[in-house]
Specification:
The complex is a heterodimer.
Chain A: H1 2-14, E1 21-27, H2 28-38, E2 42-48, H3 61-68, E3 72-75, H4 85-92, E4 104-106, E5 112-113, H5 142-157, H6 162-187, E6 194-197, H7 203-208, E7 212-216, H8 227-240, E8 244-247, H9 254-263, E9 266-269, H10 283-301
Parallel strand pairs in A: 1-2, 1-3, 3-4, 6-7, 6-8, 8-9
Helix pairs in contact in A: 2-5, 3-4, 5-6, 6-10, 8-9
Chain B: H1 2-23, H2 28-56, E1 77-78, E2 108-120, H3 125-128, E3 139-152, E4 157-167, E5 173-184, E6 191-199, H4 220-226, E7 232-241, E8 247-255, E9 291-301, E10 306-318, E11 326-338, E12 349-363, E13 366-367, E14 393-394, E15 397-413, E16 416-427, H5 431-436, E17 445-457, E18 460-471, E19 475-489
Antiparallel strand pairs in B: 2-3, 2-19, 3-4, 4-5, 5-6, 6-7, 7-8, 8-9, 9-10, 10-11, 11-12, 12-15, 13-14, 15-16, 16-17, 17-18, 18-19
Helix pairs in contact in B: 1-2
């Protein structure tokens, strides 16, 4: 009886003892790059689905258990996960991923954040992020910095595989370099074109390829539009000749469709994160898909 | 800019002093005049510099309203480990205190206000509404003004305090230390200890603060068993995250069993009769005189969009009806939530929450003949509810009270939630009630409450609720309450 109990207990604890690094990523994009760098040396699980709004993830208790067993936690920082991650980490009671622990990896480290407020800010301006726009993974060039961060973190935690992590990082960065050139060529004809987005989520992508944000469907970050604002927006889009409205798959369609119809524009639905569309399976897949959609729509409306 | 300013002044002053030396006395008046002029000119220069400075300093960029800020490339700032360069210079006492974001604070500070307005057909609104934070009068009620402080204490602890202000119907402001506890961050073996003054982890509603509730008032069963302010007391709680493939956690709290916030335990009920008799808080004589509250909770992800959380709780402790009297409370709770994988801002969603509880109150025998003269006191302090002319003698017995609530919330579009709650409480008629009729604190009653809430943002809400109450022997009542909430500052992220 006693022996049986011991075996059972040993089995319960055995889950935590296998060799591969157990990596938990807050969003799928961090997980996708981690998979490129870690390959078969790590096991990646993602908390926020690519299809959902990353600011409003439910702190499901199952995630507490997930984080409890994690060797590494990948987070974006810059307040992206502030609404749900702290309570999960607190419940997980895992020393390896407490703040400042080697297993807590901040993906925004070394990345130049856009729109860091310089003047006074308060909540009458909506959900303004005091650390800057947290949607930084949408600049594909930031992929390099994230890959370096990840390779460094994995090597520190698992030195025996450091060579493999470094090789994968180099491979990833070389491929990214080629792709960046390819994408830049694809988007070159549309440099300076003005577009509209729902939330300020695509700013990094736009900045990378020289597109200009003419306005957002939301009057202020996180605030839903009212009729008067929509009217003003439409008249401005008409004057400025803005034809493209970029929205994520999970946004409501009614207002964007109305704006598109009234201003003679076109809606393009593109995922903001890996897994947001069946074709956006990995890091490169996301940008391939998004840029192809955007380029096609811009070609059509030009 | 400041340096330039200073050096200008230095030059002017040295010029002035050299002139003074050169003049060597003959026309002191003229020199004084000249000095005065110089002083005025430096003042003027100073003013100009200041004006210039204030113009070039960081000001909110005036934006035409409908146009949100466009990507501003020159304003890029590299993010350093963990944070950014929002604070470019050290904070000075003349700066406003800004509490935005959660990554740079030693202390998160927030203030939450809950106020209600409404009316009811009941004459006894204060016994219709069982919660201490419920709207309890016609007109306006300040339900709860809550200041929350929380943060990491050091590498070992996290701390939290909730200080409540309440304004009672007489207009008196009461201050209440609702919770103040610390929690460990780094215990081994999946353990966590909480110590201080805190809500007992019993079911789902008891440990949560009123601003998180889906309804303007607390469920009836919570009011009956845990009283107006919920079950909370000083103590310590150990919890263990069980290494099961799914989430499950075991809690054991040991807390004081006496006081106003332990309705079913050693509570004097302000020397008013409760369950037909008077109660005494007594003293702690042994370890059996504290409150033990175990709980087990488990959660399952039924699918990517559905989560189930279930729990079983209990609370054991002595009560104030006599020397060896004790109380046992048992509860089960269930929370289910559906939120699609393509939600926008957390909407739409459907959640269903239910709790059922049973209390077994072992009441000691009680003799209303307080002075032992077998006759009624003329001052009316001795009860004679059966009207036989001698003070009542209540037998010792086990009183069973039970009830449940079940509530549904449907977030049908971003910011809008429709809710419906059903409440039912009852008890087994006690022997003391056979003597003088059903006790209003134990008689069957039920309530149905539909409501509609609008959240303009995560930091405010407006809620309209209708309550239909049926109390056996008292009758039916209708109430309508409008509730308003606002939250300032940075508030810790909430549990599931």
């Amino acid at each position: 009886m006693k022996a049986k109990f011991l075996i059972l207990t040993a089995m319960l604890f055995a889950g935590a003892a296998h060799a591969a690094l157990n990596v938990v990523a807050t969003i799928s994009d961090f997980g996708a790059i981690a998979e490129e760098i870690g390959a078969d040396k790590i096991k990646v699980t993602t908390i926020c689905k690519g299809t959902e709004d990353a600011h409003f993830v439910s702190a499901r208790p199952g995630f507490i258990r997930l984080l409890n067993q994690a060797d590494v936690l990948l987070e974006g920082g810059a307040d992206l996960e502030a609404g749900w991650l702290p309570t999960l980490v607190n419940g997980a009671r895992n020393q390896k991923i407490q703040s400042e622990a080697p297993g807590r990896v901040l993906l925004s480290r070394g990345i130049t954040l856009l729109e860091v407020p310089t003047g006074p800010i308060d909540r009458s301006m909506g959900d303004v992020h005091p650390f800057g726009n947290p949607h930084f993974w949408l600049d594909p060039a930031n992929g390099k910095i994230m890959a370096n961060n990840l390779a460094e973190a994995f090597s520190r935690l698992d030195p025996s595989n450091a060579r493999s992590y470094d090789r994968n990082r180099q491979k990833f960065n070389e491929r990214l370099e080629r792709k960046l050139n390819e994408w830049a060529k694809l988007m070159e004809p549309y440099r300076g074109t003005k577009v509209v987005t729902y939330h300020k989520s695509f700013d990094y992508l736009l900045a990378r390829f020289g597109l200009e944000l003419a306005g957002t469907i939301e009057p202020k970050p996180g605030i839903e539009p009212g009729a008067a604002y929509v009217k003003l927006l439409i008249s401005r889009l008409k004057v400025e000749g803005v034809k493209l409205i970029l929205i994520e798959p999970y946004r409501p369609r009614k207002t964007p469709e109305y704006v598109a119809q009234a201003s003679g524009g076109k809606i393009v639905i593109v995922p903001e994160r890996v897994g947001g569309h069946e074709k956006a399976k990995d890091f490169f897949g996301l940008f391939e898909y998004d840029l192809a959609q955007i380029a096609a729509a811009l070609k059509e409306t030009k | 800019m400041k340096n330039l300013n200073l050096s200008c002044l230095m030059i002017i002053i040295s010029l002035a002093s050299s002139r003074l030396q050169a003049a060597k006395g003959p026309d002191l008046q003229a020199l004084k005049r000249e000095l005065q002029e110089l002083r005025e000119r430096t003042d003027e220069l100073q003013r100009k510099i200041e004006q210039y400075e204030s113009k070039t300093s960081t000001q909110p960029q005036p934006q035409p309203l409908p146009r949100p800020a466009v990507v501003d490339v020159p304003k890029q700032t590299p993010a350093t480990a963990g944070a950014t360069n929002v604070v470019a210079r050290p904070w000075s006492p003349t700066d406003p205190i800004r509490l935005l974001g959660t990554q740079r604070n030693y202390l998160n500070l927030s203030f939450d206000a809950l106020v209600a307005a409404g009316t009811s057909t009941a004459d006894d609104i204060q016994s219709l509404q069982l919660g201490g934070h419920d709207p309890n009068q016609r007109g306006f009620t300040v339900q709860n003004l809550e200041t929350t402080l929380d943060g990491k204490v050091d590498p070992y602890f996290r701390g939290q305090a909730n200080i409540i202000l309440q304004i009672d119907p007489e207009g008196e402001t009461a201050l209440e230390a609702e919770e103040a506890y610390l929690e460990t961050l780094s215990l081994p073996w999946n353990l966590q200890v909480r110590a201080g003054h805190f809500f007992t982890e019993f079911g789902r509603l008891n440990p949560t603060h009123p601003h998180l509730w889906d309804f303007v008032d607390q469920p009836l069963i919570n009011g009956r068993l845990f009283g107006a302010d919920g079950l909370r007391n000083p103590g310590a709680r150990l919890s263990w995250l069980v290494p099961t493939p799914f989430y499950s956690e075991l809690f054991l709290a040991v807390q004081n069993s006496q006081g106003e916030t332990s309705q079913s335990f050693r509570n004097s009920h302000e020397d008013e009769p409760y369950l037909g008799r008077l109660h005494d808080t007594g003293r702690v004589r042994s370890v059996n005189d504290v409150l033990f509250a175990p709980r087990y909770a488990a959660s399952f992800n039924l699918s990517d969009s559905q989560t189930l959380l279930m729990g079983a709780s209990a609370a054991f402790g002595p009560n104030g009806s006599g020397r060896d009297a004790d109380t046992q409370i048992y509860g089960v709770d269930l929370f289910w939530k559906w939120k699609p994988v393509n939600h926008h801002g957390g909407f739409p969603f459907v959640s269903w929450q239910s709790e059922a509880m049973l209390r077994r109150f072992k009441a000691d025998a009680f003799d209303w003949d307080l002075d032992g003269d077998s006759a009624l006191n003329p001052d009316g302090s001795e009860q004679d509810l059966n009207g036989d002319g001698i003070p009542d003698l209540l037998p010792n017995e086990i009183l069973s009270d039970y009830g449940f609530y079940s509530q549904l919330a449907y977030g049908f579009r971003k910011g809008w939630v429709a809710g419906l709650r059903g409440d039912w409480v009852s008890s087994d008629a006690a022997r003391y009630e056979r003597l003088f009729g059903r006790d209003a604190d134990r008689a069957q009653r039920w309530r149905v409450a539909p409501n509609l809430t609008w959240y303009p943002s995560e930091f405010s809400k407006i809620r309209l609720q209708y309550n239909f109450d049926r109390r056996r022997s008292i009758g039916d009542d209708h109430s309508v309450w409008l509730q308003l909430e606002f939250l300032l500052g940075s508030h810790a992220a909430h549990k599931f």
